[in-house]
Amino acid sequence: MGLAIVAGTLFGTALGPEARELAAAINTIMGMYNYMIVMPAAETLVHLPLPKVGTFKRARARLDATVYRMIEDHRRTPPGDDLLSMLVEAFPVLQDRAYLRDQVITIFLAGYETIANALSWTWYLLSQNPLKEEKFHAEVDEVLGGRLPTVDDLPRLRYTEMVLAESMRLYPPAWAMGRRALRDFALGPYWLPARTTVLMSQYVMHRDPRYYPDPLRFDPERFSPQARAARPKMTYFPFGVGPRQCIGESFAWMEGVLALATIGQKWKLRLEPGHRVEPQALITLRPKYGLRMRVEQRGENSRIAG
Length: 306
Known about the structure:
Layout: H1 2-11, H2 18-31, H3 33-38, H4 42-45, H5 51-76, H6 83-90, H7 97-128, H8 130-144, H9 158-170, E1 177-180, E2 185-187, E3 190-192, E4 197-200, H10 202-205, H11 225-230, H12 249-264, E5 267-271, E6 279-281, E7 285-287, E8 293-297, E9 304-305
């Protein structure tokens, strides 16, 4: 679903049958993350004929092929009003091809991989907190009255947004981020030479009891306007901060809230008894064993394997 949404909405492209292949390629790349980051001089060794490196390169080539196809399709057609058309217009020359690919893949991951994980964790947390879930459903019913949500409904889906925000506090899809120093600089009492990599973990910061009392408790009210205003700015950054903050953040928020509201009108999700839930820190924070959920129609007990 996430791939179809981001491809159609942002890139004016229908993926069709290749969506499953593309999802598999992204999953392979995500699964290779821990292996790649522990390789010494990974940027050099990625060119060696190692078995796992070959798997990674084939998955990357599959992803690149789809992205380049979308770019070339847009170059050959009259400009549209989707984001990819605007990016193609902004970077028309050949030497910008790789840069444009990088931007498209970044948006793909924000609109698909990141939000898919965020929604998975959100449904899990709602299933474990029935009072919060009830309040979420009540807002959806009141705001939508049984119709599909639109962008115009976003300002009134405040609690739904708070639910998503609290979910990304506890299980931020981007669980850590890094920056590499271009030159020597001082960071407080620390002296960092050029090329030093500085890591910041959303997962750690978002669970700091100085800013989030009883940090393991799921409480969407932490993201009321008053609660937000009372916290220092850099204590919550699920999409990063600064000039390199994720380009897809606004779209991800919109997609996440509308998806929750759409599904939440008719369905509840329940964790299968005995299923083990454990986060796995890859490029994104995924459920290590997946999330086996029962899908129940609200007011009934229709069961669908999840």
